[in-house]
Specification:
Helix content: 10-25%
Order of helices and strands: EEEEEEEEEHH
Shape: rod-shaped
Distance between the termini: 108 Å
Number of strands: 9
Number of helices: 2
Largest sheet: 7 strands, mixed
Oligomer: single chain
């Protein structure tokens, strides 16, 4: 990843490492509660609602090549059960660890060479400090996605919905539909039609007998 541009220390997910210093082995612990940024989670599945509280616990450690950030994020995630489509809520705990490199040092902590044949591709996947600041947001987003279930359920044994009528089976464990073979259903319909025809014939015959008796 390229160098961050114009980080704003007032943003809740931007942290300052000046107090930590650059002496290898120095450590600093931080706690901070922030409002969840927009779209924190798995889009359309489950996530932390925008503005919901997110508790952060961080340990900053100064190493030769930069600052190693280890932490945990805790929040309440909301989504929808993939089986019964009912709303659900679960406690989220996402752990992460990321190295934020000094922009003027290589992987061994030495001053970077500036020859034109430097391999710029090595920087694509790296995160850098800018004026002693680092932005935790991309790290937090990745950690939250990894910690959330791709197919959330309201309970492990959720039976889901009835495939015929859509009823929630957990509300009615005895819910069922009588299975009817369509071939027998057709025969039953034909039998019903024949019975109705026989009844009509019998009714007509009885009416004729009554007329003869009256004469």
């Amino acid at each position: 990843m390229a160098l961050n541009a114009r980080l704003d220390h007032r943003k809740p997910l931007v942290f300052d490492t000046h107090e930590l210093g650059r002496r290898p082995g120095a450590q600093q612990r931080l706690t901070r509660e922030i409002d969840a940024p927009k779209d924190l989670g798995i889009a359309g599945v489950i996530g932390v609602p925008e503005g919901a509280p997110v508790e952060l616990e961080l340990r900053l450690e100064s190493v030769m090549e930069g600052v190693l950030v280890t932490g945990t994020a805790r929040a309440q995630a909301k989504g929808e059960c993939v089986r019964c489509l009912e709303p659900l809520e679960l406690a989220l705990e996402a752990d992460f660890q990321e190295m934020f490199s000094y922009p003027d040092a290589d992987e061994r902590g030495r001053a970077k060479a500036t020859e034109p044949d430097d391999d710029a591709e090595d920087d694509e996947d790296r995160l850098f400090l800018e004026d002693g600041l680092f932005d935790l947001e991309p790290v937090l987003r990745d950690a939250v996605v990894l910690a959330l279930p791709m197919q959330p359920v309201c309970q492990d044994d959720c039976p889901g919905l009835c495939s015929e009528c859509g009823a929630r089976l957990a509300d009615d464990p005895d819910h069922h539909h009588d299975a009817v073979d369509i071939r027998w259903a057709a025969l039953q319909g034909l039998a019903g039609s024949l019975e109705d025809g026989e009844k009509d014939e019998m009714s007509g015959a009885e009416a004729g007998v009554d007329e003869k008796q009256e004469k």
